[in-house]
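Following up on my earlier thread - several people asked me to post the actual chain instead of describing it. Fair enough. Here it is, all 156 residues.
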Amino acid sequence: MSVNVTMKVNGQSVSATIEASMTLVEFIREHLRLTGTHVGCNTSQCGACTVHINGRAVKSCSLLVAQAQGAEVLTIEGLAAANGDMHPMQAAFKEHHGLQCGFCTPGMVMSACELKGKLVDPTDEQIRASIDGNICRCTGYQNIVTSVKAGLAAMA
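Reply from S.P.:
Thanks for posting it. Predicted structure:
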């Protein structure tokens, strides 16, 4: 069965007729060709598919596209400025080596951006607890924590 969906993705209105069973991450990657959002586990465990829906970080592999009907969706591609300048959180991950293979990075960055205003001068433990739903298989997380801390400071 097909359904019609309309939403804003990275500030642009998009409409499509898609299969009712299509997940949001499939729509983002396959229909919109925004491949920065990664598919890791497809079970909401790893966080690689994290995007913002109406300002809230969500795992897009666990939502059907129809559930995002009328929503504002922000992907990792939408964080950068129109002139190509990186978002402060993206720049912090680059500067503080918060990535290795990069597979988890888009989800980590999107989850970290949601922390703005929620954590003021956070401790390492608070940051670790806040990114708990995102798995990195390469790092010991310290550079990720340092990156999040620097990104939040730059966003303040």
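The chain has two domains: 2-79, 88-155. That should answer part of your original question.
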